[in-house]
Amino acid sequence: MLRIQFERTKTTRRLITALSSAAIALTATGIVQAQGEQYTSNLQLGTANPGGGYYTMGSEYANIFVKRIDVPDLNVSAIQTSGSVDNLAKISRNEIELGLAQATTAQLVLSGEGKYKNLDTTAVGLLGCLEPYALHVFTLADTGIDSIEGLKGKRVAIGAPGSANQLAARALLSAYGLAEGDIRAYPEASDDARQKLRDGNLDAIIEVQPVPFPGLQELESAKGGVKLLPIAGRQLDALLKNSDFAPYTIKAGSYDFSPSPVSTVSDWSCMFASKTKVSPDLAYQITRTLYEHAGDLTSSAKNVVSIDTAIPEGSRMPLHPGAERFFKEKNVLP
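Structure (tokenized):
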């Protein structure tokens, strides 16, 4: 039996050597070098595992940035990662320049508390939040599972190590009084988890995804009998009290197999950038493009991404200076 395990983040990052003689120098291409760390226009954007919303959104935004931003030699490559925690850690270690992460997860990681106390995240800056992702808890009719309490003793996919899914799963199980050993937890990524559920090698999946999530509809088309399990009552209250999730309702008809509304929680998907690798000017252009060209997306996110919800109420996430400039110009910030 597998127990819930969370990826251990490395506690070291590359030291940045200060240049005493030249704090800022311009290169021939206009890329700035500051404190020994050179800004770059060759960017890697951390997404997640294939099959989930981040992998699709990150890939599309990488193309949109290159198409819409007029910066010499700009190159943006979307890369596969384990998800939110992994992306924030990689930005912190200067391994990637951009990354997607859930707001709740980011606030936990960036707080430097608990298991993240030795991770230096000062290089991580928020560019903005994009669309809400709902916590989906789903199974198949032939498993006989009708509630989240019914997950006890069952084989449950909780997401890949380093993903926001694992943190959400842990919070959900805690709200329902389920300890780590009360379920048979499988740290599976999105695509693999749904295939195992389809093949009868899993009983349920806990997954944070956009609504509607194409992978869930594909599962229904291929297998049939998909059931969403609601989060409600005192367990919902406990989950909201002990996390930064917000109440959310998956509307009736969001999925062909779900004619009734389903109560759950949501979190914001957000884009982050390195303060040491992405210049304020380039971060400004990327942030502007996130919102002004969201219509270039092919997913339902194109109708949801809005500057009005770019900074969640009560956010404790530090902004990248370039994003801060953009939001002040748009009167989102004073």
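Residues 147 and 229 are 6 Å apart (CA to CA). The two ends are 52 Å apart (CA to CA).
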